[in-house]
Specification:
Blueprint: H1 2-41, E1 44-48, E2 51-59, E3 63-67, H2 77-83, E4 90-94, H3 110-123, E5 129-134, H4 138-147, E6 152-158, H5 167-172, H6 176-188, H7 192-204, H8 211-217, H9 226-236, E7 250-255, H10 263-272, E8 277-281, H11 293-306
Helix pairs in contact: 2-8, 3-4, 7-8
């Protein structure tokens, strides 16, 4: 009897696990379908002189041009702006070439992407912006600041990459155990089923609720996307030192424990831009730094001072 009971128990457990798996699969597919419809309905596709670009534009006040990380998309801008307490601004958030609905043909190199940003501002009749670049958005932001300073009020480089970078080189600089953990986390963060689980968990924890929208911005952006692959190629082709010749008011915020984009990127960039302000967040990692109070206060103070005398971003209204 005991043997038969164990068999029945095992079969029952198997059926329960299978049922749970089917339920998870159905909920996951439904969630992803709704998210896809949401993405298509909350952005616009703009034809510029440099190609098509996907964007969203919302808010009221001076314009912030938000350039997302690797991977990402236009929908990364809104949750990140909210998490940093950015109020009183118009947020122009783009999908960089190869991500979401912006084709890679609109700009493969950081230089070409900078040209695309300028063409986007022209098409939208926006004359000046404050550039906010996160992580992999850094190289094209620097090119934009150098090539089109007339469009820029200031530059914020937030845990941003600024010169030569390969994942292999970064991995060699960290201990084995940490390197393995980093690789595992990177793989999980481009797995949509894992992101679905993380999204649901974050919504159940009050202090993590803000992060749920950021988690959603990573969905459907795996490492096989054209944008991600192109970013890796372009980052490996960058010069080994930061881009010189930028004189804009600049804020650089970086965590000292960042294992994705090493802290030295921030240090070297601060040395290359005259008057740049470097805010080092002690112990801050790549994903955690921008949620720290020190970072949020520094970002808001910088923006308030920068826009104290200029509070309109439309052409002819400086």
């Amino acid at each position: 009897m005991k043997l038969k009971f164990n068999v029945v128990l095992a079969v029952g457990a198997g059926i329960a696990a299978g049922s749970a798996g089917i339920t998870f699969g159905l909920r996951y597919r439904g969630w992803k379908e709704k998210l896809l419809l949401h993405l298509q309905s909350t952005s616009r596709l703009l034809e510029t002189s440099r190609g098509a670009v996907e964007y969203s534009l919302e808010g009221d006040g001076p314009v912030i041009l938000f350039l997302h990380g690797t991977p990402g998309g236009y929908n990364q801008g809104i949750p990140m702006a909210r998490s940093m307490g950015l109020n009183g601004f118009t947020l122009l958030s783009l999908s960089r070439p190869g991500y979401r609905r912006t084709p890679l043909s609109s700009g493969e190199t950081p230089e070409a992407q900078a040209d695309l940003y300028a063409a986007t501002l022209d098409a939208l009749n926006i004359s000046r912006v404050t550039v906010v670049a996160v992580s992999g958005g850094g190289p094209s932001a620097l090119q934009f600041a150098q090539r089109y300073p007339q469009y820029c009020r200031g530059l914020l480089m937030l845990v941003a990459l600024s010169h030569y970078y390969t994942e292999e080189e970064v991995d060699r600089l960290i201990p084995t155990a940490r390197r393995l953990l980093k690789r595992l986390l990177n793989r999980l963060l481009v797995s949509d089923p894992f992101l679905y689980l993380l999204f649901n968990l974050s919504k159940r924890v009050p202090e993590e609720a803000k992060s749920s929208e950021f988690i959603k911005s990573l969905v459907m952006n795996p490492t096989r996307t054209a944008g991600y692959q192109n970013d890796m190629q372009q980052f490996a082709a960058l010069k080994p030192s930061p881009l010189p010749g930028i004189t804009l008011p600049t804020l650089i915020v970086h965590g000292t424990a960042d294992v994705e984009v090493p802290f030295r990127h921030a240090q070297e960039l601060a040395g290359a831009i005259p008057g740049a302000q470097l805010v080092a967040v002690d112990g801050g990692g790549h994903l955690s730094t921008l949620g720290k109070k020190k970072a949020v206060v520094a970002i808001n103070n910088f923006l308030q001072k920068l826009h104290a005398r200029q509070d309109v971003g439309a052409k002819g209204e400086e």
